[in-house]
Design goal:
Shape: globular
Distance between the termini: 25 Å
Helix content: 40-55%
CATH architecture of the largest domain: 3-Layer(aba) Sandwich
Number of strands: 13
Strand content: 5-15%
CATH topology of the largest domain: Rossmann fold
CATH class of the largest domain: Alpha Beta
Strand order of the largest sheet: 3-4-2-5-6-1-7
CATH superfamily of the largest domain: P-loop containing nucleotide triphosphate hydrolases
Structural class: alpha/beta
Largest sheet: 7 strands, parallel
Radius of gyration: 25 Å
Number of helices: 20
């Protein structure tokens, strides 16, 4: 009997934790079929993986289990969870990282029951013939919405399904996305036979979660910003018309279509086509993208982040790094926009979002002196400015929380990230101002509120961000939206994608 087996697992092996009914029900499906589990952040996907690992090890005691996670800290976190909730001698466990010598990993593979690893590490070892997946009875794929195209997950899952004698796959995610083709690809790569979906509104989940107060704070786009916006829009319109005239751009000139256009142009040039139409089009497209980004910073971020961006363009032009940038900063409209921007900054004018955010955090602090908040923002310059503004509030200790260094930007090492989260857990820090690094990959504790500095058009990322609050205690989700800007479009895009995702998952059938 299924229920008897779960009771047996609880009594004999699980320590310090009891499965909830929906976790038990999901486990029953996972035990018999390759399963995609879609469950919001904080509702216990890892416990389901642990229960299934116990079941597979009992059934196939000579076989291994591999638990994949996209980052080393997350893989390490899962291993610590298993160690905490299993008897000490239940199974040997090892964390595989690129820092461990390949010969050592080969040796560990032979003597380890459960391997926790990033996919890149396993992929490299398989390609180098260090070991194979024939003796693996369970492959757990965390954040499996990444199991697409050339990502290492896809290579490993194909290798596993071809090699394993007793294969079983468990895919875990808060959201697989809303596009049918991509969800189908994820399911195909994982050889999914069943899907288990729960939301905060699911009847068997409701009793375990706390009230989530969701508020959209709408703000007017300031009139004094309008002249900057109009200058930038005029410049953008000219470049868009040029691209259409050259038959290089079709349809609306949004960020995605411009990026696609740039990709197509550069691919054609790289293949040897040096026609002047393409070369001039490449310059026009590069300028259009930079103007688009400037508009996004103006409408949705901070004036200081736009200033930083403009200064960077002037610097690149002066150093002769890009002909397109040199042409851009020479234009009259660009310089008019810059002059107006500097006038506003001299008057200490800022985006109304920043002012409202400060007010919200001050009020939260008054209501609860021990509160903890995560503020999400898209761009690092904005994160820095927001953090500085938060630290102006008495009683606030805010820190920037960003990913590892990339391109010209500075970043945080994984050790620095973990130390920062540790201080957040201890209450030494009460506000984290984060980029998307805080959406997945680190064990960030329950917070009183999650604030979106801007909406994001991704349903996956929206769900991951929102899952940081209202798990064990009442929480708030606050989203700042500047009216009559791309903020509104991004907000509705994510809402519609999330709705479409759950409709799609509800209709999926497996043979």
């Amino acid at each position: 009997m299924p229920g008897c087996f779960l009771k047996f697992i609880k009594m004999e092996y699980l320590q310090n934790i009891s499965p909830r009914k929906y976790q038990q029900d999901i486990f029953e499906t996972c035990k018999d079929k390759n399963c995609l589990v879609v469950l919001p952040t904080g509702l216990g996907k890892t416990l389901i993986a642990l229960m299934l690992a116990i079941e597979r090890m009992k059934k196939f005691p000579e076989e291994k289990i591999v638990f994949l996670a996209p980052t080393r800290p997350l893989a390490e976190q899962h291993m610590e969870y298993f160690k905490k909730n299993l008897p000490e001698l239940f199974a040997s466990m090892e964390l595989f990282t690129g820092k461990t010598d390949s010969e050592k990993r080969q040796e560990l593979w032979q003597n380890t029951d459960i391997v926790f690893s990033t996919p890149q590490c396993i992929e490299n070892d398989l390609k180098n013939g260090l070991y194979d997946l024939r003796g693996v009875s369970l492959l757990i794929v965390d954040e499996c919405h990444r199991c697409l195209k050339n990502y290492a997950y896809a290579f490993i899952t194909k290798n596993y399904n071809d090699a394993a004698e007793y294969p079983r796959v468990l895919g875990l995610t808060a959201s697989p996305g809303h596009e049918k083709s991509k969800v189908d690809e994820i399911a195909r790569n994982l050889s999914i036979e069943a899907i288990e979906v729960r939301t905060r509104e699911s009847e068997d989940v409701k009793e375990y979660i706390q009230e989530l107060n969701f508020e959209v704070v709408k703000l007017d786009f300031p009139e004094e910003f309008e002249s900057i916006r109009q200058n930038l829009k005029r410049m953008l319109d000219i470049k868009v018309e040029e691209l259409k005239h050259r038959k290089l751009l079709f349809g609306p000139a949004n960020k995605k279509t411009l990026l696609d256009t740039q990709h197509n142009i550069m691919r054609a040039i790289a293949s040897g086509n040096k026609h002047f139409n393409l070369l001039l089009g490449a310059s026009a497209c590069a300028q259009a993208l930079k103007i688009q980004h400037s508009l996004e910073l103006l409408e949705t971020q901070t004036l200081s982040s736009l200033q930083e961006y403009f200064n960077g363009l002037f610097k690149d032009a002066k150093e002769g790094k890009s002909k397109a940038v040199s042409n851009l900063v020479k234009q009259q409209e660009f310089n008019q926009a810059y002059i107006k921007l500097m006038e506003l900054i001299a008057k200490k004018v800022e985006h109304p979002k920043l002012i409202k955010l400060k007010e919200i955090v001050e009020n939260e602090l008054k209501d609860n002196p021990k509160f903890r908040v995560i503020i999400f923002a898209q761009f690092r310059d904005s994160v820095t400015k927001i953090c500085k503004t938060m630290n102006e509030i008495s009683g606030i200790n805010a820190r920037v929380f960003v990913g590892q260094a990339k391109k010209k930007e500075t970043g945080m090492s994984q050790r620095e990230q973990q130390e920062l989260v540790h201080d957040f857990i201890l209450g030494k820090i009460n506000v984290l101002v984060a980029t998307q690094i805080a959406e997945e990959g680190l064990d960030i504790p329950e917070v009183n509120a999650v604030i979106f500095y801007e909406p994001i058009p991704s349903a996956i990322r929206k769900i991951q961000r929102a899952g940081r609050t209202a798990r064990l205690m009442k929480g708030k989700l606050i989203m700042l939206v500047t009216k009559k800007t791309r903020d509104e479009a991004y907000y509705w895009s994510a809402v519609n994608k999330e709705k479409k995702m759950y409709e799609l998952l509800g209709k999926m059938k497996f043979n």
